[in-house]
Amino acid sequence: MKILFFGTKNYDEEFFSKILQDKTYEDLDITYIEPNLTPETASLAWGYDAVCAFVNMDLSAPAIDMLNKCGVKLILMRSAGYNNVDLDQAKKYGITVMHVPGYSPEAVAEHAMALVLTANRHTHKAYIKGRENDFSLSGLMGVNLYGKTAGIIGTGKIGIAMARICRGFGMRVIGYDLYPNNTLDFLEYVDLDTLLKESDLISLHCPMFENTYHLINTETINKMKDGVILVNTSRGGLIKTEDLIKGIREGKFFAVGLDVYEEENGSVYEDLSERILGHSTMARLLSFPNVMVTSHQGFFTKEALNAISQTTVDNAMAFINGVKNGNEL
Ligand SMILES: NC(=O)c1ccc[n+]([C@@H]2O[C@H](COP(=O)([O-])OP(=O)(O)OC[C@H]3O[C@@H](n4cnc5c(N)ncnc54)[C@H](O)[C@@H]3O)[C@@H](O)[C@H]2O)c1
Question: What CATH number is attached to the domain comprising 134?
Answer without folding.
Answer: 3.40.50.720
